Amino acid sequence: MGICASCGTEYAPLPSRARYCSNACRQRAYRRRSAGTSTVVAELPGYDDAFVGREAELAELLLLLRKHRMLTVVGPAGVGKTRLAVELARRCRRTEVRTVELGRLSRADQVVQAFAEAVGVYQHAGVALRTTLVHELHHRRILLLVDNCEHLVEECCEVVDALLSRCPHVQVLATSREALRSIGEAVYPLRGMGADAARLFRERAGAGGDHHTVETICARLDGLPLAVELAARLSVPPPELADRLDHRLDLLTDAGEQARHQSLRAAITWSHDLLTAQEKELFRRLALLPGGFGLEIAEVVHGRSVIGPLTALQAKSLVARENDGRFRMLESIRLYAEERLGEHGEREVTAERIVAWLCEKGEPGVSSSILTPGQVQAQHQEYDNVAYAFAHLVAPRDDRRLMLATMLLRVCFDRGYFAQAGAVLMQVLHQSPADARYRILALEYASLLAAHEQRHEEAVEHALEAIATAEAGGQDLIMCRLYRTLAHAHEGLGDALNAARALRRSIEYGARNGNDVSVAVSSQNLGWRLLVDGDTDGAAHLVDSALPVLRVHARQDVVAIAVHTSGCIALERGDLATAGAHFAESARMMAETPRAAVESIEGRGLVAMASGRHELGVRLLVACQQMRTTWVVPPEPWWRRKMATALELSRESLSPAAFQRALAAGRSMDARHALETALDKEIVRDAVLSDRQRVVVELVAQGLTNAQIAAKLGISHRTVESHVHNVKTTLNLSSRTQLAAWARTH
């Protein structure tokens, strides 16, 4: 016996009356549906636990469901597609909901039957089941939740297209590991849970746990709800669990779940088994690239073109494409792929291909005098892969460890955190033979590391050894760069004479080899050296010739340094407008890395002070002092003296209260606020003399010497000299006579 879906009467169902006891009840139900009064929500899976998080995704999906009749939620194994879709369906109003579960099906001819059973339609003699299904749903207002479509995509798409084209009130919400490519389909890629993953872990674990440890576990699990829930249900303390996540595929199981979700391995296996042989081959060979990959390295590890199989892996949610265009596997999926790689005996050959390719990316450092922006970017992109290769893919005595360690340190220098990478490089350098292929490059970076760590004598020793080794091997092409490294080491020792000599040697080698960009870098460095020594014109000549070449060919951080030097030259010449513009340009170039923008912010502060905006200048210089202390980035002596003098003059020019107010404001600034303040367009304005400067000018006009002015005002002779110099610079005057004349007319 059956129960009529309209009146509730028991009846003996016939094929023509599957859900209703009579045609009258069928018509009555039809009229209710047509009037939009049906609020049936039936056959949705039930869950014993609470739904956690995903509020942003639900809001986005509800909007999409209002606009589209066909919506597919796609994502990798264990990302929570079904649970999210069920929650979404529960929140739909005034809509009949039916679930079409395809996960247990194995044959294409079962798909139509699954749809029919879900909505209560039975086979009529002599009529195709699909035809009956379309006829039955033609007037029903219904949402079909079609779950787990990935293994029957084509057949599912055919049925969905037929329903959507002929049943105007049918809507389909599908979950799949790849899109159905149905007509009018909207695809919503679902990713890990992010911050909500820790909430899910605690809710399922029923306990708190250390916040940082739980977040670490969830991040390692890529925020996959299945993995997080399985981990939370283990009777393992979170710290121990975090240490064992490399073995997660054996660890994360639950015999109480349905077969496909009883373990993380089973969930991923379901996707893997749907791949073709070529797709499986590429899938496992990408396992040794935890830092993501582009097409080039993918083709290297695969040994041939990858566009077709890689596109398939992306479509099936086994790899994801990042915003920068690179591809990446979730860590759990990558570990599964690594197991398959070992099973097929391909680990060694794949590892060798990866190491050789990574060393090739570092090769320009061995043979070229300067790296191009693209070469530097490539090393940054591959940093995580280089770190993995260094730790897991090369033998302890393999000379290529020198190259990999140097690449790691090269990137860490740019990022500002180099202590650990530096220790690794030095350990490998000490273990490597004197004739190791990459020893010169490693010695150069050992010199740079020693200079950063204030071990200047060691820096000189390493640089000299690198030069001697290169000379013995006839490697002239890198001598320009090596002498520049030696100059940097001499600078740290305070040996200005040898620093300048090394830079001139660098320029000679670069010019001899036609290396214009490297010559420009060394010319800019020598220009700074001349500026510090008081040769402003010589510095301007070198920097002005170098800057156009650098703007075209050099990395942005190198250009920013040269622009900053130009600003310093203009500041020395009293051209505040030009100085301010150069410092602002340099600061904007390095806006994304405030650590590198500190000197440009300080330059804007000096310009502000010279323009009479002493409080603003003090705020900027004090903010930068704090940043330098935090980041352990001491200023060069010449630059430090200029800032100290400027601060002292501002102290005398401002009232004690105003100076203390500026100090407090500067100490409260963070890096971003300081940068925004430094880029204030009003920093450079018409010259304004402070009260103290006006008094000094009046005494100069009376014919007093600097010593007499110092005695009269009770300040030092040097302070008076600075006041006179700054006033002449601000007013663009060249002599005391002109200054006295200006005082008489103002």
Question: How would you portray this structure in words?
Answer:
The protein has 746 residues and is mainly alpha-helical. The chain is built from 39 helices and nine strands. The strands form three sheets. It has a five-stranded parallel beta sheet, with helices on both faces. The radius of gyration is 36 Å and the shape is elongated. The N and C termini lie far apart (110 Å). Residues 31-42 have low confidence and may be disordered.
Write the layout of secondary structure elements.
Layout: E1 2-3, E2 10-11, H1 23-34, H2 55-67, E3 70-74, H3 81-90, E4 96-101, H4 110-119, H5 129-137, E5 142-147, H6 153-166, E6 170-176, E7 185-189, H7 196-205, H8 211-220, H9 225-232, H10 238-243, H11 248-251, H12 264-272, H13 277-285, H14 295-302, H15 307-315, E8 320-321, E9 327-328, H16 331-343, H17 347-362, H18 364-367, H19 373-381, H20 383-392, H21 400-415, H22 419-431, H23 439-452, H24 456-472, H25 479-493, H26 496-512, H27 516-532, H28 536-553, H29 556-572, H30 576-589, H31 594-610, H32 614-631, H33 637-653, H34 656-667, H35 671-678, H36 691-701, H37 706-713, H38 717-731, H39 736-745
Parallel strand pairs: 3-6, 3-7, 4-5, 5-6
Antiparallel strand pairs: 1-2, 8-9
Helix pairs in contact: 4-5, 5-6, 7-8, 7-9, 13-15, 13-16, 14-17, 17-21, 20-21, 21-22, 21-23, 22-23, 23-24, 23-25, 24-25, 25-26, 26-27, 27-28, 27-29, 28-29, 29-30, 29-31, 30-31, 31-32, 31-33, 31-35, 32-33, 32-34, 32-35, 36-39, 37-38
